[in-house]
User: Fold Amidophosphoribosyltransferase from Bacteroides intestinalis.
Amino acid sequence: MGGFFGTVSKASCVTDLFYGTDYNSHLGTKRGGLATYDAEEGMFARSIHNLESTYFRTKFEDELDKFKGNVGIGIISDTDPQPIIINSHLGRFAIVTVAKIVNLEEIEAELLSKNMHFAELSSGNTNQTELISLLIIQGKTFVEGIENVYRRVKGSCSMLLLSEDGSIIAARDKWGRTPIVIGRKEGAYAATSESSSFPNLDYEIDRYLGPGEIVRMTADGVEQLRKPEEKMQICSFLWVYYGFPTSCYEGRNVEEVRFTSGLKMGQSDDSEVDCACGIPDSGVGMALGYAEGKGVPYHRAISKYTPTWPRSFTPSKQEMRSLVAKMKLIPNRAMLEGKRLLFCDDSIVRGTQLRDNVKVLYEYGAKEVHIRIACPPLIYACPFVGFTASKSPLELITRRIIAELEGDADKNLEKYATTGSPEYEKMVSIIAERFGLTTLKFNTLETLIESIGLPKCKVCTHCFDGSSCF
Assistant:
């Protein structure tokens, strides 16, 4: 997915920029980048590093002295190297994006036909941030150019632009699929994907940008350049999986939403269990809520070895995903043996992690293994944000089972997405049987939306029910 951070201050911005960007590290693992502008020298400084085998801080800490100035932007990218720096009729600017461009090849071909060129190739492919910048410079102003992006891009695109006038332009995706939060403190403003960047840097949340809203930030304040759209489709998976527990989107805290969904599930679940446990990290909040709602203790029967293992969705190769899923979680035999255990997890995508976890739980003496999932089954691939490394819907375990049952992975999807339908119940029972679970239950879409606390029409639930569109 990716996350960014930008700040403009009356003093040096480098420390805030470094740590603020690092606080987005849970959103991406491919590239990290920083750019600053020094008004005295009239120069940009930029650095980009590969993060696939290390962490952001280890790559950037030793070179912070090269960055100078009161304004800067940073990115943890799950796509291409960023930031890029452009010189155009709009002036010089650096840009970072959190984007997924479904129609990239179509736009690329059109721009090439107009004698434009791409210089920032990434692994032989067009860098989508460069493509976005070329769409921007077709406008007579930054706002006009960003609106061109909104019109042209299918998928999603939120961005930060660092201008040589010493300001930052923040523009949220037109449908609001990915967030931008504005923070403020004395003498400084910041914009970020994750509000968890703010507390330790002494920022307070000032506002949440609306869908398609564009603002210009200076050290003195925030100026609105484009009003927000009324319609919104913020990604529900921000609360289910992506978000750090202390982050808030649209005023709704991630941990609170996870806790509430678990609480509601625990209150309605009739299974008899000895304790509730969370699959780290994003299953923990739900499990704490489930334990309270069910009236059973919370036990930490599995711990995540955090120093070295990244999230299991990151590697593109199935063999590596399987290895990561196995190695990063360590079971605790003393808390497992002879117990009827209920585990909460955020989702089931391919089943890689679930398969390995359940096998080990029984090997370590669990009497029963019940699984509760924070969201409905994932039936549809996401065309809007960079959700997984999946290249095909058939990587979803649900679609593989539908293909087995129907002879066609695309047949009767609506029925399989409907909680309680015969097709839904059959699919869930097969998943449970395939992994040796005592019981398996998914949260309902209604409970998820209630927990998020926003109207259904403002939340994208496409991966569950196929309801959203461009």
